[in-house]
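Q: I'm a student working through a structural biology exercise. My instructor gave each of us a protein and asked us to get a predicted structure, then write a short paragraph describing it. Mine is Tetratricopeptide (TPR) repeat protein. I'm not confident about reading structure output yet, so if you can add a plain explanation after the tokens, that would really help. Here is the sequence I was given:
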Amino acid sequence: MWKHEGGRVLKQGLCLVLFFSVLLSGCGERGRTIRQYRESGLEAMERGDYSAAAEAFHHAMDYYGTAKQEGTELDILRYLAEAEFRGGNYEQASDCYQELLERDGRRPEYLDLKSSCIVKAGGDLKEAGLLYQEATELLSSKKKGMPEYHLSALYTLGEALAKSRDPGLIEEAAAYYNEAQVSGGQSPELCARIGKLFFDSGDPERAETYFQEGLSLLEQQLPEVKEADRREEAMENRRELLFNVAVCAEYAGDYAGALKGFEDIAAEYGEDEALTHELIFLRSRVSTEGVE
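A: Happy to help. First, here is the predicted structure for Tetratricopeptide (TPR) repeat protein. I'll explain a few features afterward.
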């Protein structure tokens, strides 16, 4: 009797060992497959093939099934969102960031990236603005200043609001830019963005003030820029600001001042098609005014 019962217990124990061995083997195989898809996705991201990257990350997510592993799964979901965003699939990226907001908390970077997705997908600017504002409040409460991702979201939203031609939305964009000045300080790029906002809204005089301020800040920074790539970029930004200042002078009717500005740019940077066009027009205009 004892042997019989013991044999049954032994068989049951053996079955359980085999069951857990198979189960663990399956989990190990699934983990390896997930890692392989993750690595494939990262390699595709490195070479700029965002469609292949998104597909690989989708496969990795599918392998989790109902067995949620928050740490690694959220990591892959972040990569998936980035791949969809970089690939221009903004609605899909927005869905990913929404899931991250629900599962990983309302982090400023998720709010900003979802805001940018909505704008780039042609969605509701009001919703995008609310997400951006929430991110701003969170960063302010943590004294985080203006991280790069927040500035990027600001510029994306600001440009969309400016293009709307709606006076109320343009003022909203100006308010966001002013908040950024308070939080992160003035910068040449921020000045250029604000100047463009006012120029596009039909206020070249106010725009020129910001372009001039951006130019002054940039020229103060130039002596500190030593790396060749960064210096080349800074010099190109300087050219753009000089060009914008001259355009504002032209719109204000100061044709002689605008011509001098464009001629100075040509002497320092050389001519391109847009600059040549401006020079021809203004030389003709100034010579005509002289005759009159």
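A: Here are two points you could use in your paragraph. The two ends are 125 Å apart (CA to CA). The longest helix spans residues 2-46. It's a good idea to check both against the output above yourself.
Q: Great, thank you!
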